Amino acid sequence: MPPLDEFGLIRVWTEGRQSKEMLAKAGVTLGIGDDAAVVAGSSGQEWLFAMDTMVEEIHFRNETMSESDVGYKALAANISDIAAMGGMPKFALVSVSVPPQWDSNRMKQLYDGVYMCAEKYGVAVIGGDTTSAPRHLVVSVTVIGSIEAGKAIRRSGAKAGQFVFLTGPTGLSAGGLHGLLKKPADEGGPDSVPVPPHRLVQAHQRPSPSVKAGRILLEQGWGASLNDVSDGVASEAWEIAEASHVKLVLKETHLPLSGELVAYARDNGIHPLDWVLYGGEDYVLLGTADKRHELAMKEHFRAEGIPLFIIGEVEAGQPEVILETSAGASKPIHKRGYNHFPKGYNE
Amino acid sequence: MPPLDEFGLIRVWTEGRQSKEMLAKAGVTLGIGDDAAVVAGSSGQEWLFAMDTMVEEIHFRNETMSESDVGYKALAANISDIAAMGGMPKFALVSVSVPPQWDSNRMKQLYDGVYMCAEKYGVAVIGGDTTSAPRHLVVSVTVIGSIEAGKAIRRSGAKAGQFVFLTGPTGLSAGGLHGLLKKPADEGGPDSVPVPPHRLVQAHQRPSPSVKAGRILLEQGWGASLNDVSDGVASEAWEIAEASHVKLVLKETHLPLSGELVAYARDNGIHPLDWVLYGGEDYVLLGTADKRHELAMKEHFRAEGIPLFIIGEVEAGQPEVILETSAGASKPIHKRGYNHFPKGYNE
Question: Where is the PurM-like N-terminal domain (chains A, B) (predicted)?
Answer without folding.
Answer: 33-146
